[in-house]
TrEMBL record:
Pfam families named among the record's database cross-references: UDPGT
One of the record's GO molecular function terms: UDP-glucosyltransferase activity
Family: Belongs to the UDP-glycosyltransferase family.
PANTHER family in the record: GLYCOSYLTRANSFERASE
Database matches in InterPro entries: UDP_glucos_trans (IPR002213)
Top-rank taxon, per record: Eukaryota
Swiss-Prot/TrEMBL keywords: Transferase
Protein name in UniProt: Uncharacterized protein
Annotated source species: Stephania japonica
Length: 164
């Protein structure tokens, strides 16, 4: 995230995997999409057609793993060059894309801040499953009082003193 968020980064060539998609969206940078297989094609559609923060290079259809050569899934250097030139272009169209990308990144940052929607949803989820608030471990399921191993001293204190 530090590299993607650096002011010198003008764009990101991504295979549209789940993590790189969210990292690039969070960093607020425009993208060149190059999906290879699986959900990457769906992620590309969201980036290019829904959010409109990227340019498509590469294949346009889903290809099963191992079938790339059969369908000639080869991206030529001219296509990559075209994508990079579009991404670095100073046109009004691309400036609007950059603004959208930055707005989406800012929305993501606000959602993760204390009181933001993602922060609140994760906090409610943690409360709902009963995880100990002083840690992030999921060992609570096998220990009494729903505390994890890092809170075992608290569990022992409660069991010895009888305080809930």
């Amino acid at each position: 995230m530090l590299i993607l968020s650096h002011q010198a980064i003008g764009g990101f060539l991504t295979h549209c995997g789940w993590n790189s998609t969210f990292e690039a969206l969070g960093a607020g940078v425009s993208k060149i999409t190059w999906p290879l297989f699986g959900e990457q094609f769906l992620n590309e559609k969201v980036i290019v057609d829904v959010l409109k923060v990227g340019y498509r290079v590469g294949v346009d259809v889903y290809v099963e793993w191992g079938q790339e050569e059969r369908f000639e899934v080869v991206v030529k250097r001219e296509e990559i060059e075209r994508g990079v030139r579009k991404l670095m272009d100073k046109s009004e169209e691309h400036e609007e894309m950059r603004i959208r990308a930055k707005e989406i990144g800012e929305m993501g940052r606000r959602a993760m801040e204390s009181g933001g929607s993602s922060h609140l949803n994760l906090s409610h989820f943690i409360q709902d499953i009963g995880i100990c608030r002083s840690c992030t471990c999921l060992f609570f399921m096998i220990l009494p009082r729903r505390h994890c191993h890092s809170c075992l001293l608290n569990v022992n204190y409660v069991l010895i003193n009888g305080n809930a």
